[in-house]
Design goal:
single chain, alpha/beta, FAD/NAD(P)-binding domain, four-stranded parallel sheet, two-stranded antiparallel sheet, 3 helices, about 25% strand
Length: about 130
Amino acid sequence: MGEPTVEHVETLVIGGGQAGLSVGYHLARRGLPFLIVDANERVGASWRHRWDSLRLFTPARFDGLDGMRFPAPPHYFPSKDEMADNPQTYAEEFELPVRSAVVVERVSREEGAWWPVPANTDSKTGRQLK
């Protein structure tokens, strides 16, 4: 196995769930460079691992992400699969840079930079972690 490569990104967002994607949306709107990494095999996958009968207890009008309403009537209660599809659509719509299947085991600070230590990929560094 070769020496891992180091990839520097200005801002590394750990977690591609609703909060991580929303952070990415705002970073993109400001023209700031960033990368979102997520442990799941694809965006929204954590919703797919829930029980089949799951429906949200909040109506769709409250289930949107920053910059995009949830694609359903306001009083509709989305299923787990609809909740799983929405983050993927969101990431694609706003062209958010998401790298899937990246498990970050820990983060340390050295030489003025944060060093996330991924379990299954080459190293990445970031000045800011979100």
